[in-house]
Amino acid sequence: MTRVYPPIETKTQSNGLSPSFVETVAGFSAGVIATLAVHPFDVLKTRLQLDHTHRPQWGNSFHLMRNIVRDEGSYAALYRGLMPNMIGNSVSWGLYFLWYRNLKDIFQSWRGHNVHLTSLDYFLASGLSGILTAVLTNPIWVIKTRMLSSSRSAPGAYHSISHGVREILASEGLAGFYRGLIPSLFGVSHGAVQFMAYEQLKRRRARQLAGAGGGAGQVGELSNWDYLVLSAGSKVFAGSVTYPYQVVRARLQTYNADKAYKSARDVVVQVWRKEGLGGFYKGLGPNIVRVLPSTCVTFLVYENTKFYLPRVWDTGLAFEAD
């Protein structure tokens, strides 16, 4: 199955659907489906990030999964915290793609519609979108991290999103919702690098396909397989250098973090002193297993929703007209 990837998209499509609306729905849908597909790996990754031992991560991952199921009653324990994770991912991707599309449009208007955006343009559009998204969604991630890091029966554990909100307000105030925000903002660089790579890889692949078809200089058609490979490649590239911030963020967002750490810098100092360089890469194994499928599913659903939604809408309008 192939998709036409246009070099320049118009502000308003002929069917009346704005590109911003299409981007938001595509991002929201991608977040929901990807979360459902890989949530158990998120549980494993979060608990490994909070592990202070020097045990091997891969062997520990399987041991931890077995213990979660055994100690917490059933395989349903691997889906603890699903709702805040799903809300966080769907809202984050929806907002992210909304702002990303509009910022790209702004940069395109500055450069002129016959000029391709540069890697810097993609990096800036992605980075700014990530900052806005991180600030607005950080409270969801605080609750999600705390729910994933403990069993439902653990003392002080949140039973639901609303319970988490009440507990944080009562014990930490509004500031509690923004624990780990600084590392999250550092993590924006990950998304910026990933999208910069993804956009350029898509453009290169489209030109390659066009050239193979005798249409050099034109835009080729990308398949679902292309989207899978390009999204995975860009994710590995970006993740190779930015993973440590996730460990710092997770430790700042967990229960009683204010008693264990003074700041993000304090987390870095303590992890380095007590656990060494390997401490910054705890949970990397299950994160790779989780992130690559999640990224591939996210971008595949996003690209397909963006492609089909206007066409389904057109079909519906035509049906009503008949």
TrEMBL record:
Residues spanning the membrane: 77-99, 120-143
Subcellular location: Mitochondrion inner membrane
Ranges: Solcar repeats: 18-106, 117-204, 226-308
Membrane disposition: Multi-pass membrane protein
Keywords for this protein: Membrane, Mitochondrion, Mitochondrion inner membrane, Repeat, Transmembrane, Transmembrane helix, Transport
A Pfam entry, by short name: Mito_carr
Domain of life of the organism encoding this protein: Eukaryota
Annotated protein name in UniProt: Mitochondrial thiamine pyrophosphate carrier 1
